[in-house]
Amino acid sequence: MGLGRFGGTVARSLVRLGHEVLAIDGGSATVQHWSQVLTHVVQADATDQAALRQLGLGEFDRAIVAIGSDLEASVLAVLNLAEIGVPQIWARASTDAHARILRSVGAQHVLFPEAAMGERVAHLIVSRLLDFVEFGDDFAIAKTRTPPSLAGRRIGDLTGEDCHGVVVIGVHGDDSRFVPAHPDTVIPPDGALIVEGTIDAVQRFSVAD
């Protein structure tokens, strides 16, 4: 529900992954645009429970409410889906208060896409990180360029001081693919690593010489 930038991207990605998607938006121009991209696009009011029942939403396993600026419509859409019986509801929130309301009316998963992207970009800007995914409040997995001091060394020979508290779990191989890290793996120069650890540890590792 909601085919703005975020909702449209999610819907298109799900289709590319091979899933059947019913996309719903209240705007005729938006529906017309996405009907050229998605297989099932319907113009409907997400706050009208009768219309949603008529579309058979109760038969879907998961629903994503991607409505951003209209908080009332967002909350009513989640409430309608919960009352219809959709077992898994994901909803986009703009504030902490909005998130609390969404959870109280039936959303099992609340997303803050703008905040998550802002956090990710901040980490990328101030380090040699190539990608960064945060899990919870204090854990992350990151893709980072190889620190010069580790190039040519075996992973099994690295110390905690060398790694600044992170664990190397993947190495950019000679065939341009990432492979699982093993003690005998030699870290190639000018390559990249996948590491995991606390956010602070990942950040320290990403700026190490």
TrEMBL record:
InterPro entries: NAD(P)-bd_dom_sf, RCK_C, RCK_C_sf, RCK_N, Trk_Ktr_HKT_K-transport. It holds the Pfam family TrkA_N. Keywords: Ion channel, Ion transport, Transport. It comes from the Bacteria. Residues 1-111 form the RCK N-terminal domain. One of its GO terms (biological process) is monoatomic ion transmembrane transport. Residues 127-209 form the RCK C-terminal domain. PROSITE patterns: RCK_C (PS51202), RCK_N (PS51201). The keyword Membrane does not apply. PANTHER family: KTR SYSTEM POTASSIUM UPTAKE PROTEIN C (PTHR43833:SF7), POTASSIUM CHANNEL PROTEIN 2-RELATED-RELATED (PTHR43833). This is Potassium channel family protein.
